Amino acid sequence: MPDQSAVENPIKITGEFTPDPDVCKFIIDRPILDGWTLIFKDKDQSMGSPLVDALFEIEGITEVKVTGSTVTITKNISIPWPDMGNDILPAIRHVLTHNKSAISQEAIEAVEQAATEDIGSVIEQLFEVHINPALASHGGYVRLLEVQDRDVYLEMGGGCQGCAASQATLRDGIETAIREVVPQVRQVIDATDHSSGANPYYS
User: Would you give the distance in Å from CA 23 to the centre of its chain?
Assistant: First the structure.
């Protein structure tokens, strides 16, 4: 039987395009997974998660990322997202209406276990190999300050310190890359003193 509260308060979902035409975000008006980011590359990784199982039943979906109230989906077919949404939105609504939890406890526990591992070295390698070579072309760099529990503190320097575009770089580039390699991260926190940069936008 449908959840009466869901009937009285219908689930609202907003689609949001990304720079990658094969990736779209679906933002739900209620939380799905607090405190974690989980990435599923195929149905076998769902560990019995109803939402993931339902989405991978849809043709063309190759990855599902769940964090907070956002489900980010990757596809490998040419069908436009508005048409894909005709299948995706009902699937999400059905799961959230008929299941107590969209993500299985087993999947969450697997990420919790991974969270006990040292993630600092993984992030430092990411910065050294991928992030800083890209930022160097703009005269900038980023370094890891510390990891407390599952919160990552970093500092931006060079051309990134005080740059008005640094927050977009952090949010859309650096944070996304970090969550790809260590999805157990809870928050990525910019501890940079941007007011002392060459072109400060804080004061």
Answer: 12
